[in-house]
Amino acid sequence: MKKRKHQLIKNIAISFANLTSIDPTLTYRTADIIFLEDEIFIIPFIRPILHLNSNPEIILPGTQKLKILSRLQSDNLIEMNVSDNAGSLTIILDLKNKNIEIPSVNKHL
């Protein structure tokens, strides 16, 4: 990862909506986030890493893989609809007060 362009953002407020059967125990409120080209890693403090991208072929060991169906960026929020074989959910990242350049995302939600 050191050779790939990435951005680490610590202690991001995160929320989950529309939980189906993916993992109803996703209840943590903050996590570190890595934006890596077209991939996003959500690194909670006590749970497995969530690996989000739009390519279902890329699977990293030790991560829970979710496919990004759509993403929406507005002001300080990034809202992503994601899925796996078990179902789908919405993940909302709140980047308020982080003084960073929010990576551009597709605006087609």
Notes on the structure:
The chain has 109 residues and is an all-beta fold. The chain is 0% helix and 52% strand. The protein has strands at residues 6-17, 30-36, 39-43, 49-53, 63-74, 77-84, 87-94. It has a 7-stranded mixed β-barrel with strand order 1-2-3-4-5-6-7. The radius of gyration is 13 Å and the shape is globular. The protein starts with 5 loop residues before the first strand and ends in a 15-residue tail after the last strand.
Low-confidence stretches: 105-109
Shape: globular
Tally of helical runs: 0
Structural class: mainly beta
**Helical amount among residues, as a percent range?**
under 10%
Strand elements, count? 7
Question: Which percent range describes the beta-strand content?
Answer: over 45%
Radius of gyration: 13 Å
Q: Gap between N and C termini, in Å?
A: 29 Å
Strand order of the largest sheet: 1-2-3-4-5-6-7
Largest sheet: 7 strands, mixed, barrel
Kindly report the average pLDDT value: 79
Order of helical and strand elements: EEEEEEE
Q: In terms of topology, how is this protein built?
A:
Blueprint: E1 6-17, E2 30-36, E3 39-43, E4 49-53, E5 63-74, E6 77-84, E7 87-94
Parallel strand pairs: 4-5
Antiparallel strand pairs: 1-2, 1-7, 2-3, 3-4, 5-6, 6-7
Descriptive keywords:
mainly beta, 7 strands, disordered C terminus, 0% helix
Explain briefly what this protein structure is.
This protein has no helices and seven strands. It is mainly β and 109 residues long.
